[in-house]
Amino acid sequence: MRIGFFELEGWEEKFIREAFAGHDLYLSKEKIDEKTLPEQKNFEVISVFIRSHITTKVLKALPRLKLVTTRSTGYDHLDIEACRSRGVAAAFVPGYGDNTVAEFAFGLILALSRKICEARARVKNEGKFTTDGLVGFDLAGRTLGVIGTGRIGKHAVRIGKGFGMNVVAYDVYHDDAFAKEMGFPYVELEELLAQSDIATIHCPYLPTTHHLINKSNIGFMKRGAYLINTARGAILETGALISALKSGQLRGAGIDVLEDEDKMKIGNMSPASELLAMPNVIITPHNAFNSEEALKRILDITIDNIKSFVAGKPVNLAQEL
Questions:
Q1: What is the pLDDT of residues 170-186, one digit of tens each?
Q2: What percent of the chain has pLDDT over 70?
Q3: Rounded to whole angstroms, how far apart are CA atoms 227 and 209?
Q4: What is the rounded CA–CA span in Å between residue 50 and residue 263?
Q5: pLDDT confidence of 270, banded at 50, 70, 90?
Q6: Which of 39, 74, 80, 96 is 20 to 30 A from 210 via CA?
Q7: CA end-to-end distance (rounded Å), the chain
Q8: What's the average model confidence in pLDDT over 23-38?
Q9: For residues 298, 299, 303 and 306, what is the CA-based torsion angle, rounded to 10 degrees?
Q10: Residue ranges with strand state E in the chain
Q11: How far is it, in rounded angstroms, from Cα 250 to Cα 264?
Q12: 28 falls in which pLDDT band (50, 70, 90)?
């Protein structure tokens, strides 16, 4: 079978070649989209990451394609309807970074709450070993709002409880057993925003969650609160976030994902360039997933997705929810 892997870093090649010995492999560090189609078009299976965009045009250029599997939990970069209409199965990687992403979210929270970035810059860049202006705040006793209680959101709840935080959560689907176990209530989104000292986003990106946090509801947030997004950029309306930060409605933000982030370049980030200039905002480059353990889990699950499909028993197929 002709199998193509795109957006590889290099370390994966050994594992891929061992897993698919006897198959015709194509391994590339390049993404695949309408503007960067590979010269070879005879793939039956392709594996991509988040910078690739699988559209109708891409699918038409790969007439033998039977499976596309993304090495990510989110699959908004795959046109699921186009895949379905052309008889191409689409698979994803559920659950590879449940704790990984939640831990990173709390890294952003701690960096903001204790002014870690400012403290490091003072010592390193200014050579000053002083604490003036670096007063932070405790997480214990504060209210954490968790938006989305899937696998990652559940870990965020557990970590928050471990810090002694009060937790409220919003999700279309309630896990009442988990809520009872962990001792938190489900509330409506506007109520969560109003109660939270820190709100953290952990829901998937779907048509129903596009700009879930927007200019119409961000004003419900407690004045001086913090907002964290390690999910998908388009869940949070960038303009609404900027306005809330400028007005002081929000005290700060930790952002690992941005709208149209694959087009972002430092010095040419509009309107995200405004966020980058704000001292109370931490922006990281979609790095929450990026741990040694999570990367290996991603590859292992992707390999299993392909092998299961070849064996006629597909797993982890993406469906529009």
A1: 999 999 999 999 999 99
A2: 96
A3: 16
A4: 12
A5: low
A6: 96
A7: 31
A8: 96
A9: 60
A10: 2-5, 24-27, 45-48, 67-70, 89-91, 143-147, 166-170, 198-201, 225-229, 250-255, 281-283
A11: 24
A12: very high
- Nearest alpha-carbon partner for 303 in 2, 71, 40: 71
Question: For 65-95, how does the pLDDT look when each residue is reduced to its tens digit (9 = 90+)?
Answer: 999 999 998 898 999 999 999 999 999 998 8
Above 80 in pLDDT, residue 315?
Answer: yes
C-alpha to C-alpha distance for 289 and 151, rounded to whole angstroms: 13
Q: Reduced to 3 states, what is the DSSP secondary structure of residue 137?
A: coil
Contact predicate 234/255, CB 8 Å: no
Is it the case that residue 269 has pLDDT exceeding 60? Answer: no
The alpha carbon of 197 is separated from its chain's Cα centroid by a whole number of angstroms, namely 22
Asked whether the beta carbons of 234 and 211 are under 8 A apart, the reply is: yes
CA angle, 54 as apex, 53 and 55 as ends, to 5°? Answer: 105
Q: Counting every residue, how long is the chain?
A: 321
User: Smallest Cα–Cα separation from 182: which of 141, 152, 142, 154?
Assistant: 154
Q: What is the mean pLDDT of the chain?
A: 94
For position 274, what pLDDT does the model report? 86
> How many whole angstroms separate alpha carbon 316 and alpha carbon 301?
9
- Kindly report which listed range (219-223, 263-267, 304-308) carries the lowest average pLDDT score: 263-267
Phi/psi of residue 236, each to 5°? -115, 120
CA dist 143 and 256 (Å) reads: 21
Q: Which residues partner with 228 through β-bridges?
A: 200, 254
Closest Cα partner for 58 from 36, 75, 42? 36
CB atoms within 10 A of CB 129: 8
> How many Å apart are CA 106 and CA 103, to the nearest integer?
5
Count the Cβ atoms, other than its own, within 10 Å of residue 274: 16
Q: Given a cut of 50, is residue 24 above it in pLDDT?
A: yes
Instruction: Say yes or no to pLDDT of 321 above 50.
Output: no
> Any idea which residues carry the catalytic annotation?
232, 261, 286
- The CA distance from 187 to 177, in Å, is 15
Q: From CA 229, how far away is CA 254, in angstroms rounded?
A: 6
